[in-house]
UniProtKB/TrEMBL annotation, chains A, B:
It comes from the Bacteria. Residues 33-52 bind DNA. It comes from Mycolicibacterium rufum. Residues 10-70 form the HTH tetR-type domain. PROSITE patterns: HTH_TETR_2. InterPro entries: Homeodomain-like_sf, HTH-type_TetR-like_transc_reg, HTH_TetR. Keywords: DNA-binding, Transcription, Transcription regulation. It holds the Pfam family TetR_N. This is TetR/AcrR family transcriptional regulator.
Length: 193, 193
């Protein structure tokens, strides 16, 4: 049983989402049932139903705020003047999000359940496509596309590695350095925090 | 129902493994039961039991030959004289394997079921650890470790992307180029095929 805080009259929506992310990472989305989530919190299934009717509804609640933030970064990046500047802005925004969600991004990067789910949300899949395009445009052609895929999946998976002794900020800096090298971007002289 | 060849007296071991890989990629390992695999082949569960008693046994049969090949590459790489030469040999061997198994490597890169399974096989996890060490040693310190993680997961996931019109050989070359850039390796003058 996973110990999480909940209000006296039932689990909070957020505690259900937190436990779900832990279980998704451990068992994959397809391997995690609402029953398993309620069991982990010591609840009946009906307590979950008050907040989420299906696993997809729960998954949606987890993903939506992150896709919204990603979409903000994509729009901001697309407004820059050059392809390298656009990719650099996208890269820093993606690293920020990945490091802020080190439990969740590895699930995003490889879980077929998430890939399937994105197919049912064309607007969200479009955000991911635009992100890939921003990275790929640094070097138009097949090389750019392959490097975009390596950077996106590689960074998402890498934040799941503990890297003993490295702070989140150090992981973020190293991810940015790795992403710039992969995409062929120069380290900017003035850091955008 | 997935159409696969099988001998007259039952499904071949290989056709069961092929269908399993397709279903793992679609539903994750945890989301794929032996029942689903037999259903996809239009078989009874007892027909599978003749070959595999559990899903782990099937997963093991799929992974073992690839880990064996990976271990060969690791040993060959470790025998080279310099850190960059060791990483370059590891990188080409990894790209070869990833491109030869474009259906399976994306499952390896992100599926918690595979990660869990590797925990039960310390000898196999050790091969993966040695591979990461070969990549990380190009630049001792945290940067090298992060770049090793990005390259390993990024390449494994990227082979799952269709990249319209790109041949396997072109994908392999672009993966090598991406991996070398990420790790900071020079393109070798004489290509080792």
């Amino acid at each position: 049983m996973v110990s999480r805080s909940g209000s006296a009259d039932g689990p909070t929506r957020q505690s259900l989402m937190d436990v779900a992310i832990t279980l998704f990472a451990r068992h994959s989305v397809a391997g995690t049932s609402l029953q398993m989530i309620s069991d982990a919190l010591g609840l009946t299934k009906s307590a979950i139903y008050h907040h989420f009717r299906t696993r997809d509804e729960l998954l949606s609640a987890i993903i939506e705020p992150i896709v919204d933030q990603l979409a903000d970064v994509v729009r901001d990046a697309e407004a820059r003047r050059t392809a390298p500047a656009r990719a650099e802005r996208m890269l820093t925004g993606y690293a920020d999000l990945a490091v802020a969600h080190r439990d969740l991004f590895p699930v995003f990067s490889g879980d077929p359940g998430v890939v399937d789910f994105l197919r049912t949300r064309p607007a969200w899949a479009e955000v991911v496509r635009r992100q890939a395009e921003l990275f790929a445009a640094v070097d138009p052609g097949p090389g750019g596309q392959v490097r975009a895929a390596v950077v996106m999946a590689g960074m998402a998976a890498a934040v799941g590695v503990p890297f003993d002794g490295l702070s989140d900020e150090a992981v973020r800096e190293e991810l940015l350095a790795a992403g710039r090298r992969t995409l062929g971007l120069r380290t900017p002289r003035v850091r955008t925090a």
